[in-house]
Amino acid sequence: MTQNELVAALDIGGTKIAGALVDSAGRILVRAQRPTPAREDGDTVMRAVEQVLGELTGSSLWSRVRAVGIGSAGPVDASRGTVSPVNIPGWRGYPLVDRVRGLSGRLPVELIGDGVAITAAEHWQGAAQGYDNALCMVVSTGVGGGLVLGGKLHPGPTGNAGHIGHISVDLDGDPCPCGGRGCVERIASGPNIARRALEQGWQPGPDGDTTTAAVAAAARAGDPVALASFERAAQALAASIAATASLVEIEIAVIGGGVAKAGDVLFTPLRRTLRDYATLSFVQNLTVTPAMTGTDAGLVGAAAAALGSGTRMKAGAPA
């Protein structure tokens, strides 16, 4: 890929559909965004994607675009080019890659899950840069993730590898909407942290705010029930990170998403508890750190996937 060539990136989630034109250094040159009509039928959702792509293709820079990367809420199936996001019911086995390829002038299209996209972003420009083996996690409304192994993004055959949120860490735990039981997501996601705090008797303030951010604020103020809910989430995350490290020998675990914004309320018990699970000699030095790429991570990661699908990035990026 020459310095003048660009890629297009799409970040598709239950709240918004974002698009961008991105250069080989990861700079976003053009942006477009629409709300996701997540409760509408599949064609209506696709029209929002078409509007975003329409803004991008209408840019004077579009002639320099050589590939398209898509990071989508999952599950995705990169082998088939389809998506079935849990939070977009109108898309089940939806042929997103074919649709985007047709709208983009038959450019190459690379599809990955949103957790893998954020992993690509963190490895390219964030906290995992310079590490050959990494786990990157998003802890928010759900819990997702992705892997870098041997210095390269490892999306797996369908683009879902590293989906750590649905590892079971409690064999007798609560049923998870995925069909499993005791999943990390059922314990450590934002809504479940708040749910558990409320069930255990936590009382919100006068404003009635029951969000995870409010629970985090209460925990920082020393509320024992709020602290216990974050401790439980940290324990689930630690167990899953240690299991992953034991399996594939990661060197670093990067954690982003809304729950990670709780800061020390999450990371202090997480690092402490990790010592109880990561006991083997080859995982004892595992680093746990917050993500760095912020709200543009999905777009940057989708761009990284497009760049890595047959083009070359600048030094420091996954090939």
Q: In a few lines, what is going on in this structure?
A:
The protein is of the alpha/beta class. It is 34% helix and 20% strand.
Q: Describe it for me?
A:
With 319 residues, the chain is of the alpha/beta class. The protein has 2 domains: 6-113 and 296-307, Nucleotidyltransferase, domain 5; 127-292, Nucleotidyltransferase, domain 5 (2-Layer Sandwich), CATH 3.30.420. It is built from 9 helices and 12 strands. It has helices at 42-57, 96-103, 114-125, 184-188, 190-199, 212-220, 224-248, 264-277, 297-307, and strands at residues 6-12, 16-23, 28-35, 65-72, 76-77, 82-83, 109-113, 134-139, 143-149, 152-153, 252-256, 287-290. The strands form 3 sheets. Strands 3-2-1-4-7 form a 5-stranded mixed sheet, with helices on both faces. The chain has a 5-stranded mixed sheet with strand order 10-9-8-11-12, sandwiched between helices. A hairpin with a 3-residue loop joins strand 1 (6-12) and strand 2. The longest helix is centred in the C-terminal third of the chain and has 25 residues, at 224-248. The chain is globular and about 55 Å long. The termini are close together.
Poorly predicted segments: 310-319
Count the strands?
12
| Fold-level CATH name of the largest domain | Nucleotidyltransferase, domain 5
CATH architectural designation of the largest domain: 2-Layer Sandwich
Task: Calculate the mean pLDDT score and round it.
Answer: 92
Largest sheet: 5 strands, mixed
Question: How many domain regions?
Answer: 2
Radius of gyration: 20 Å
Organism: Streptomyces indicus
Protein name: Glucokinase
GO molecular function: kinase activity
Family: Belongs to the ROK (NagC/XylR) family.
